[in-house]
Amino acid sequence: MGGDRYHLRKGGCAASGGAVNAMRITVRKSADGAVARYAVVRDGEGVWRVSEASDGSGAIDLSDALGDQGHVAKCCICGCEEFFVRKDFPQRVGLITVVVAAVASLVLFAVRQMWLAFAVLAALVVVDVVLGFVVGRCVVCYRCRAEYRDLPIDRRYRPWNLATGEKYRTGADLPFDV
Predict the structure, then answer these.
(1) Domain residue extents for the chain
(2) Tens digit of each residue's pLDDT (9 = 90 or more) over 66-122
(3) Rounded CA separation 159/80 (Å)
(4) What span, in angstroms and rounded, lies between the C-alpha atoms of 134 and 138?
(5) How distant, in Å, are the alpha carbons of 98, 102, 141, 148, 171 from that of 71?
(6) I want to staple 88 with a disulfide (CB 3.0 to 4.6 A). Which of 46, 56, 138, 174 is the partner?
């Protein structure tokens, strides 16, 4: 991988002047379960290049992806300009942790170990608060769910909005099957 094969067209993001020199992009194609991961870096000339592509393609265009401040302005996968912010933590791990703590506390309640049951729930709260401060955030495209990491987050991007999400729910106009 590398070389000019992965050269991305010089344009808006190459001349952005932002302090961002590297980012990671993850794209999930839910139809076949495939996940494509891209590591993107800016070279000394200010041109963005795919330094690593898990699917071997390197076929993304970052020419208009970043705005003046280095924030994501347009999705390089589908062209959407609407994004939301979420914690960069695997949701399945969080769900499994909550289910295990709930089952453990229910078992402890059943055997009348009230203090231990409450201790398990309190420990879950402490872990959640600590993770809330430690775990970073990522920007996610509403349309294709591409995740952008290691970039500054624009203040106008808010957490998930149901009304905006419903606009893009069908995914009929995506460049890949959903």
Answers:
(1) 3-81+140-167, 91-134
(2) 776 667 888 877 888 888 998 888 888 889 999 999 999 999 999 999 999 999 999
(3) 16
(4) 13
(5) 33, 39, 13, 10, 24
(6) 138
Q: From CA 152, how far away is CA 108, in angstroms rounded? A: 44
3-state helix, strand, coil in the chain (%, to 5): 30, 20, 50
Strand order in the sheet with 34-42: 48-53, 34-42, 22-29, 147-149, 137-141, 83-87
CB atoms closer than 10 angstroms to residue 146: 23
**Phi and psi angles of residue 84, each rounded to the nearest 5 degrees, phi first:** -130, 165
DSSP-based three-state secondary structure for 66? strand
- For residue 10, the one-letter residue type is K
Give the separation between CA 54 and CA 123, rounded to whole angstroms. 37
pTM above 0.70, yes or no: no
